[in-house]
Amino acid sequence: MEHDLKKEGKYKYYEAGEGTPIIILHGLMGGLSNFDGVADYFPKHGYKVVIPELPIYTQSILKTNVKAFARYVKDFITYKGFERVILLGNSLGGHIALYHTKMYPEKMLGLIITGSSGLYENAMGDSYPRRGDYDYIQKKAEDVFYDPKIATKEIIDEVYTMANDRIKLIKTLTIAKSAIRHNMAKDLPKMHVPTCIIWGKNDKVTPPEVAVEFDKLLPNSSLYWIDKCGHAAMMEHPDEFNEVMHDWLKKANL
């Protein structure tokens, strides 16, 4: 997927299919390839899948926050000429999707969040990351998944490189603080966009009670669990994730 990115102006993105646009927002450590399963499946079922590369490490420090990223997404939607979209976000991407929904409800057809930050303060900030300590970073990467083997050497190396890049580390910590500052608890009850919450039952990063809280606070939400699954359901159980999401889209007439 990384090779198929379109570059236009300030945007880099992957795009496939025709139909209702599903825009996918990756997490802080998440590459676009984390959504390979979704990107392969939905274009065959009448959707246009678009995955922009978020400017997590490339914007100025003043624009390195949840609100600025939500604005970036809105500008991207306008640039692409989409009237209204379905947003799907994992982890920080879920938080950005939620914040975008709060700021620009008129742009939203539906919202899908999985392992999202926005309510739970430990999502990114706990004693993280220790530079130079490969074993610690390996443990952290493995904790993201129910099955630690999904944290391949490639994934661990990527996080390790990020943790040892001073600028990226500063931006990561800036984003973690921003995520805590932009807690969504007061906003969620006012957000009526149809929302699908798909959560790993064994998520250690944003534990299951976070999903329950999202479901309680959002007025128009449905909560689905995936068993033996950690923080990135679309990676650990791609087929089940697609099935759940597709069923919900049909029920919501999206």
UniProtKB/TrEMBL annotation:
It comes from the Bacteria. Signal peptide: none annotated. It holds the Pfam family Abhydrolase_1. Residues 21-116, 175-238 form the AB hydrolase-1 domain. PANTHER family: HYDROLASE, PUTATIVE (AFU_ORTHOLOGUE AFUA_2G14860)-RELATED (PTHR43798:SF33), MONOACYLGLYCEROL LIPASE (PTHR43798). This is Pimeloyl-ACP methyl ester carboxylesterase. It comes from Flavobacterium arsenatis. The lineage of its organism: Bacteria, Pseudomonadati, Bacteroidota, Flavobacteriia, Flavobacteriales.
